[in-house]
Every structure is written in structure tokens, then in C-alpha cells.
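Re: [ENG-882] Designed sequences occasionally contain unexpected residues at chain ends

Forwarding the minimal case from QA. C-alpha cells:
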């Protein structure tokens, strides 16, 4: 299909959303075609994508194109034809060479090509803006990302600044966001460590963590918490066996020894108050043997002093303590009974721990376990292993995991940086303050003059890419449009994922999920470039897949019933599924990059819906 084949599709799809009515200002030069004459020397003139009624200073021939300069005047647009060399006796109009002469610029190859671009795209210009654009494009390809950026600046009526140009140009360039982030990470690793650099490095590492690792870490965290805090010993034992199956705990270890090891590890990484409790719990488990009865009594007494809660748990521990002291209860205490005794204390300690897996020692074995756990989440034949836990908080739903990871990456990159910063300025206690540690926020706050040129260049490129994508997300009247590009790790590969949502706003200011449009752009290993276009009306979906793979429809056919079932599970109905090729869609590849008029490219994922 080609990078700009996708671009052409997006331009066509988003024409009604992205185009704004042009505002003509005195001094601007525009190329226009006379459509129809009216009395009093007025005429309908086609300028770009719109028709205007204009007051002409001289009579002009219909169906001819002229260069005009916008004049001062109230009400109707006033146009003055620019004089130039006439052709075949037609009314004279300016030639490209004469226009450049008026701009006091030489008629070089680059200047003529740039003027041809303005003419073709029907963009208004002045001598000042033309000179600015020529300067910005001095080191760019004549038909490359720079021209696409200029077109977007005019079309969207964005501020005509170098910062906006550089940001949009970054979006249209071939280099992926993933590679920009990897280069930034490499340059940071060669820079002396500072607090800001360390925080930025950590954030970048979070982006490159594979999806299986993230999903697996969440699963392991939940199963660990269930094992340590479940009030039912049967469920705790089931969680213990699951941890063994995932490779987090040795298969040949007994529950008591594993409990001792895990509690000790946790105690080393908790705040002092809670660490003391876990340390005592570890000592209790370790001393649960006949030869260490004295220490068991001492440790259990210490736990009673640390845990001041009143109720059945306190009474049960006291009864156990009295029984051991009087030799009515012999050591070792059975694992299930011991777990039931220490469970309330563990639950108290772990109340504020959101990610239990993250405080365990990071090693290759645990990383492998995380990946294995993540893979289990995608293996329908092994879901029963997790269902044995009967715990709603265990994340066994693949789409929810993908959704949550995407949301966290969007937040981590800093797509809402300006909004969050404004809210914090208005209200320092606003929750947006926690989002000011995004990658964009950290880059803006940590960029220093003493950075090496390579690091500063890498940081600027990332800032420009994020800002450019923000500029492509917009509101036009009641219509909202969001464009995101994120690095996404899945099945061992990290690729850019670019997607666009557009639709009317709800009363809460969000896109209406019942009536919207979603465009995905994918570059899959086997299917290559693929476009998925979803139209949603009253929760009824019409889906179009654009791909050049022969007989794709027959390959996909067996999966359509599953697709319908999954969509119904979210209260959506698939009404139609159409397959097209890029030729059917009349895609004309051009030389610029992958995004034009909010036309994103979603690449690198092959996800079951």
C-alpha cells in the first residue's frame, strides 16, 4: 500500500473533520479560479477547497485561474489580480517567476518547486511566509515531510512558528517513535547520572517493558497477594500452587519455607513500621519447629504487641500462644493453621501495596516467570489454571489488559502535559500533579545547556513527535478527534501503534462510544500494511479492512463468528465486514511520511479482539 497510500486514505476520511473555513487577510496571495460572474464586478471564485463571493478590481475571464492578492475591504472579499505575462491572448496573470520577483527572491529550482506546491495545494501565502517556509525547508526534501507539515499548518490554521513546524514535520517523518525513544535512552545512558535523568530513564524502561512482562507482573502480584492474605487456607494453597506452576516459587519447595523466604524479602523493602511486622512474621515461620519453641513463643508475643487490633484474630493468636506455652499445642504448627494465624497481620502490612510483584527482587528467573504468566493470559486452554483461584481481581481478560497498558503509556508519554500543567497552576492540589512526571514533562524540565548535542537532539526529537501528535488531536465544533502514537511491546516485539478516534462529544466531554469512528493502522509480519476502519452507529459496527494480501477474506472467514461474539460481549453488533485492497481504495503513494490530516499508522500488533 505504501506509507502515503495510507496517508491519502486518512486525508479523504478526515476531510470533513480537519478542514476549517479559510480566513483571508489583506496582503495574502492566493491562486483562484473564476467560476461565475455576478453584477457589480463580483464573482464566485474557487480558492482551495472553498468557494467565495469576491469583489474584483478588473473584469476577468470565467473558468480561468489567476493569482490574486487580498485587498483591504469590508464585507465581501476583495481580490486584485496580479499582473504577469499573458498566454495566448488570455487575461494576464502573474507567472511563478514574476511572483518570486515580487517576493525579492531568485527563481531557483527549490523556490519554483515550493511555489508549485502552494499552487497545487491552494494555500494562501505572503512574501514573509514564503521566505519563512523556504528557510525552514532549506535542508528538507522538496516533496518530503516538511511540505506536509506546512500544509497542515495552513489547513488547521495553526500558529506559524518554527516550533509548530518542527513538531508536525516529526510526525510525518519515517523514523518511528520507538526508535526515537530508544535513541534517547541510549544517549541518557552515556550521560552523568542526575535525579532527573534517573527518573527519565526509569520511565523509558517502563515503555520498553514487554506486554507479557507487564501482564505477567500484574498476575503474579495478584496471586502473591492472594496467597499471603486469603482468609481461606484452601484458596491460599491454590494460589501457592499457581505460583509454583508459574515458576515464581520452586516446584519442590514446601509452603512454609516459601512463606518464610517471601516474607523476609518483603520486609527488606517496606517502610520501617510495616517492615518490623513482616520481620517478626518471618521469624515466627522460621521458628515453627520443636527445637526452636522458645523463639516461637518470643516472636508470637512480639507480634501480639505490634498488632493492637481487638477481635477474633487477637484472641486466636493469644489462645495459640497460651497453648504453645503450656505444651497443649505442639510444634510445628500445620501450614494451613499457621497461615490462618498470620494472615490478618500480612493483610495489614500489604494494604497499601499496589504492585506486590515489583517489590520482589528482580532477577532473570522472575522476569521469565512474568513472561510465562503473561503468555498464560493469552492461552485459552490454560485459563482454567487462573480460574481455580476464584479471585475477581486476578486479571484474566486480555482486552482489559491491552486497554490498561495503552492508557498508561499515553499518560506516561505526556499527551496531556499542557492540560495537567494548567490544572496544577490553577490548583496545586489537583490530581494532575502526579502526571507531571511524564516523559514530555521530564524532558522539558531537565533539558539543560550542558547536555551533549547528541542528547539534546534526541530529546528535542521526542518532544517534537509528542507535540506534533497533540497538534493533530483537535476539536471542531461538537466533533472531537484524538490521534495517538505509542510504542507497544507485544509477543517480543516493540512497534509504533497509531490510532485515531473521532466523534461527537457526550455531555461529559468525551467521545460518544455509541456513535464514533475508529481508524487503526497496522504493519503486521505476514499481512503487512493493514487499515481497519470502524464506523459505529447506535453500537452497530460497519468494518472495512484494507489490505493487499490475496484471498484475505477466505483466511479471515473462520474467525468472524468469534469476532461477532467478542463484540456482542461488549454490547456491540457487527453489521458488515468488507474487504478492500489499496487499489480499490484508489491509494496513490507519494513521497512524504505516514501521516497527513490526522491519518495515523497503527503498526506492529496482531491482536485477537
Amino acid at each position: 500500500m505504501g506509507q502515503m497510500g495510507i496517508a491519502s486514505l486518512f486525508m479523504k476520511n478526515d476531510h470533513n473533520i480537519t478542514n476549517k473555513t479559510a480566513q483571508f487577510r489583506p496582503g495574502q496571495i492566493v491562486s483562484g479560479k473564476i467560476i461565475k460572474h455576478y453584477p457589480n464586478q463580483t464573482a464566485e471564485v474557487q480558492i482551495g477547497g472553498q468557494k467565495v463571493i469576491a469583489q474584483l478590481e478588473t473584469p476577468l475571464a470565467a473558468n480561468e485561474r489567476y493569482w490574486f492578492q487580498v485587498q483591504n475591504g469590508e464585507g465581501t472579499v476583495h481580490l486584485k489580480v496580479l499582473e504577469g505575462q499573458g498566454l495566448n491572448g488570455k487575461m494576464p496573470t502573474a507567472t511563478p517567476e514574476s511572483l518570486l520577483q515580487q517576493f525579492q527572491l531568485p527563481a531557483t529550482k527549490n523556490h519554483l518547486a515550493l511555489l508549485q506546491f502552494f499552487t497545487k495545494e491552494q494555500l494562501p501565502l505572503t512574501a514573509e511566509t514564503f521566505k519563512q517556509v523556504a528557510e525552514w525547508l532549506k535542508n528538507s526534501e522538496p516533496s518530503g515531510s516538511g511540505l506536509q507539515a506546512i500544509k497542515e499548518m495552513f489547513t488547521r490554521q495553526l500558529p506559524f512558528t518554527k516550533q509548530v513546524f518542527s513538531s508536525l514535520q516529526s510526525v510525518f517523518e519515517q523514523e518511528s517513535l520507538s526508535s526515537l525513544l530508544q535513541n534517547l535512552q541510549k544517549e541518557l545512558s552515556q550521560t552523568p547520572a542526575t535525579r532527573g535523568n534517573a527518573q527519565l530513564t526509569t520511565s523509558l524502561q517502563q515503555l520498553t517493558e514487554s506486554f507479557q512482562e507487564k501482564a505477567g507482573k500484574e498476575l503474579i502480584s495478584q496471586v502473591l497477594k492472594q496467597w499471603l492474605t486469603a482468609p481461606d487456607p484452601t484458596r491460599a494453597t491454590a494460589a501457592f500452587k499457581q505460583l509454583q506452576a508459574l515458576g515464581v516459587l520452586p516446584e519442590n519447595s514446601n509452603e512454609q519455607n516459601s512463606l518464610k523466604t517471601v516474607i523476609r524479602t518483603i520486609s527488606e523493602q517496606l517502610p520501617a513500621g510495616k517492615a518490623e511486622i513482616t520481620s517478626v512474621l518471618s521469624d515466627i515461620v522460621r521458628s515453627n519447629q520443636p527445637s526452636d519453641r522458645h523463639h516461637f513463643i518470643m516472636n508470637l508475643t512480639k507480634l501480639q504487641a505490634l498488632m493492637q487490633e481487638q477481635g477474633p484474630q487477637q484472641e486466636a493468636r493469644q489462645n495459640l500462644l497460651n497453648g504453645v506455652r503450656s505444651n497443649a499445642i505442639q510444634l510445628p504448627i500445620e501450614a494451613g493453621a499457621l497461615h490462618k494465624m498470620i494472615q490478618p497481620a500480612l493483610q495489614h502490612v500489604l494494604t497499601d501495596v499496589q504492585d506486590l510483584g515489583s517489590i520482589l527482587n528482580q532477577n532473570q528467573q522472575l522476569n521469565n516467570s512474568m513472561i510465562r504468566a503473561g503468555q498464560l493470559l493469552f492461552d485459552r486452554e490454560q485459563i482454567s489454571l487462573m480460574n481455580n483461584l476464584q479471585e475477581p481481581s486476578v486479571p484474566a481478560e486480555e482486552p482489559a489488559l491491552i486497554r490498561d497498558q495503552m492508557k498508561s503509556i499515553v499518560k506516561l508519554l505526556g499527551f496531556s502535559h499542557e492540560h495537567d500543567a494548567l490544572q496544577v497552576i490553577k490548583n496545586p492540589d489537583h490530581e494532575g500533579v502526579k502526571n507531571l512526571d511524564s516523559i514530555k514533562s521530564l524532558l522539558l524540565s531537565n533539558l539543560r545547556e550542558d547536555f551533549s548535542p547528541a542528547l539534546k537532539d534526541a530529546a528535542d526529537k521526542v518532544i517534537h513527535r509528542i507535540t506534533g501528535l497533540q497538534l493533530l488531536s483537535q476539536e471542531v465544533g461538537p466533533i472531537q478527534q484524538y490521534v495517538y502514537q505509542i510504542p507497544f511491546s507485544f509477543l517480543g516485539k516493540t512497534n509504533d501503534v497509531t490510532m485515531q478516534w473521532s466523534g461527537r462529544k457526550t455531555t461529559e466531554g468525551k467521545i460518544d462510544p455509541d456513535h464514533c469512528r475508529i481508524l487503526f493502522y497496522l504493519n503486521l509480519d505476514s499481512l503487512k500494511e493493514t487499515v481497519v476502519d470502524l464506523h459505529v452507529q447506535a453500537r452497530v459496527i460497519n468494518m472495512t479492512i484494507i489490505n493487499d494480501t490475496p484471498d484475505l477474506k477466505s483466511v479471515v472467514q473462520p474467525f468472524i463468528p468469534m469476532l461477532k461474539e467478542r463484540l456482542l460481549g461488549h454490547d456491540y453488533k457487527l453489521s458488515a465486514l468488507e474487504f478492500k485492497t489499496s487499489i480499490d481504495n484508489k491509494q496513490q503513494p507519494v513521497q512524504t511520511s505516514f501521516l497527513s490530516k490526522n491519518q495515523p499508522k497503527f503498526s506492529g500488533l496482531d491482536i485477537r479482539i
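QA comment: On inspection the terminal residues look reasonable. Confidence is low (pLDDT under 50) at residues 1-12, 86-91, 380-396, 587-609. Proposing we downgrade this to a documentation issue.
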